[in-house]
Amino acid sequence: MSHPVVLITGALTGIGRATALAFAKEGARIVVSGRRDDAGQALAIALRAAGAEAEFIHADVRHEKDVQNLVDKTVARFGRLDVAVNNAGTEGTPGPITEQTADSYAATFDTNVLGVLLSMKHELRVMQKQGSGSIVNLSSTMGHRGAPGASLYTASKHAVEGLTKSAALEAAAFGVRVNAVAPGPIETAMLDRFTGSADRKAGLVAGVPLKRAGRPEEIADAIVFAASSKASFITGQIIGVNGGKTAS
């Protein structure tokens, strides 16, 4: 399909924004979502300026009514849904396990895990009926490597990878693919918040064999590939894009 319909959650900054711009270059019709209306409308305008048909729809992935409305409005606007990128996520509150609470757990898992589950539920509702579609979830290198002080974030990304594999097995019979892209350290505001200081950030990046953090555009390129017909025999996979961090 020359002009696929693409839905991106958590699209207003970082990897999500870079992914929207990458799909715009590919000629996609795009729906971007997030919780900040001003930023969302500004992004839609930027995408239109890049030549794409684009809409912003307000949605908080922690709430099923928002997610259902997001998917329904996407289909109402463009008639179908070909690609969904479930990027909405949070780093939560980093710190030792002994300092975590039920509230900090919920704050992390409601966005990172429940949000992905609800998004896939309603995306698959449409894609399975179509008999086609591609979903790309956002995991992390920490989804298969533990990290001190990041227990809840790490656990949430383990959960995303499990959801991805289970959904891929369920959706394959309908011609729908489900994969995840797992970035390493990427130059985003989330990385700055997660590390908390320039020294801690430098220490994290020093562990990357390529000796640098990745760029959001590099992750966007991997997402566009995973969603495309060039990856038509790839499903149920966790695609690491991390500068070699998981090679050893």
Structure, described:
This is NAD(P)-dependent dehydrogenase, short-chain alcohol dehydrogenase family. Pfam families: adh_short_C2. Helices cover 48% and strands 15% of the residues. The chain is an alpha/beta fold and 248 residues long. It has a single domain, classed as NAD(P)-binding Rossmann-like Domain (Rossmann fold). A 7-stranded parallel sheet has the order 3-2-1-4-5-6-7, sandwiched between helices. α1 links the parallel β1 (5-9) and β2. α1 (14-25) crosses α8.
- Per DSSP, the total helix count is 8
At CATH level 3, the topology is: Rossmann fold
Q: Which range does the strand content fall in? A: 15-25%
**Major β-sheet, in short?**
7 strands, parallel
Top CATH class: Alpha Beta
CATH superfamily: NAD(P)-binding Rossmann-like Domain
Molecular shape: globular
- The span between the termini is 39 Å
Order of helices and strands: EHEHEHEHEHEHHHE
* Rg for CA atoms: 17 Å
Q: Low-confidence segments, ≥5 residues, pLDDT <50?
A: none
Structural class: alpha/beta
The CATH architecture comes to 3-Layer(aba) Sandwich
Which strand order spans the largest sheet, edge to edge or round the barrel? 3-2-1-4-5-6-7
Share of helical residues: 40-55%
Number of domains: 1
Q: What is the averaged pLDDT score? A: 95
GO molecular function, one term: oxidoreductase activity
Pfam family, one: adh_short_C2
Family: Belongs to the short-chain dehydrogenases/reductases (SDR) family.
Protein name: NAD(P)-dependent dehydrogenase, short-chain alcohol dehydrogenase family
